[in-house]
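Researcher: We're teaching a course module on how sequence relates to structure. For the next exercise, students receive a sequence and then see the predicted structure as C-alpha cells, so they can try to spot secondary structure elements on their own. Here is the exercise chain.
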Amino acid sequence: MCSKRILFVDDEPALLDGLRGRLRCLRSRWDMVFVESGSRAITEIEHGPFDVVITDMRMPNMDGAQLLTTIAERWPATIRIVLSGHVQEEQSGRVLTNAHQFLSKPSTAQQIENVIDRCMTLHQMLAEPRLRDVVGRVKKLPTIPAAFARLNALINDPDVCIRKIADAVSADPAVAAKVLQMVNSSFFRLGRRISRIDQAVNYLGLIAIRNLVLSVEVFSSWPANSCPPDFTPDRLQSRAQQVAAAAWALTQGTPIADDALLAGLLHNIGYWVLLQECSKEMARAADIAQAQSIPLPVAERELIGASHAEVGAYLLGLWGLPHAVVEAVAFQHAPAQIANSEFDVLTALQEAQRRVTEIGEPA
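Model: And here is the predicted structure for the students to work with:
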C-alpha cells in the first residue's frame, strides 16, 4: 500500500525539527517532507502531489493564507490544514475560505495523527477523484463560517455567560432573526413564543444555538440560481430545520442531542455542492429516479459516483465537525453499512427523517 504524502511548512527551523522528532514514529505510514517557506512548498508540490499540506500562517514573503489559496486553485483535492499559534484577523477571511482544519501550536503527534487520519478516512469515502476535486474547489461556503467561529471561541471560554452568547448572535440581525424563527418552529413545541436570543440560549443551550447559527450561515450563502423546484434553498432549508427539530425532540436530555440537532440541520448540505458543480447530472439523476422508481441517492451514485450524503459528509468532515455527525450524514441512506446496536445520532437522524416525511414533507 502506497504511503500518504504529507508536507509540513513553517519558517522556523527549530519547529520543523521538533515536528520531525515527534512524528518519527509515523514514518512507516507517511512520506513526510518539511520545508521552510511557501515558495519551497509550491516547488515540492510541483515535483509530486501531496495528500495533505500542513502550514504555519505567519511566514515572510508568502504567508500561509497565500500558500493555501494557491494550493486550493492548483491542487484542489489536497487537504489543507493550518498549524499555527496565532491567526491574524486580517488574514482570517482568506484562511477560512481555503483551510479545511486548524491545529494550534503546540500540537502533539497524536493530535496531528488523529486529524490527518480523520481527513484521510473521509478522503477515501469518495472513490471518485473528480468529485474530490469538485469539493476541494468550493470556496463560496466558508470552512468555518464567521459567526459560528466566534461562538466556538466564546463557548470555549470558561467564563462565558448567556448574555455574551446572545450578544454575539444578535450582532448579525439577519442571523438572529433566522435563529428565532427556527427556535419557534412548531417542531420544538415550546410552551410560549421566544422573542429574544437570550431566551433561546437559555432554553436550547449554548451548543444548540451555535449549531443553529452554523445552519443559518450555510443556507444564507446557498445560491438559488437555476435550482430545480425540489432543490431550492428555501425548500432544502425548511426540510433541514424540520428534521433537525425532530431529531432534537427525539434526543433531548441525552448526551447526543446537540450532535443529532446538527446532523439534522446539515444532512442535505451535499446538494450545495452537487447543484453547483454537477447540475446536469443532478437533473438526470432526478429524472432516472422518477422513471425507474428508485431512490434518488441510488441514481446520484450511478451518475456522479457518490450521493449527496457522501459529498455532504466529506465536506463536514473537512470542517472538523464531530465524527458522529459526519457518520450520520454519510450513512443516512445506507445505515446497514455500519454496525449499530444502540440509539445513536444516525438512528435519530433516520427516525427524524421518517417522521418529517410522514407529515407530508418530501425526502
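Model: If you want an answer key for the exercise: DSSP finds 19 helices and five strands in the chain. Residues 4-125 form a domain with the Rossmann fold fold (CATH 3.40.50.2300).
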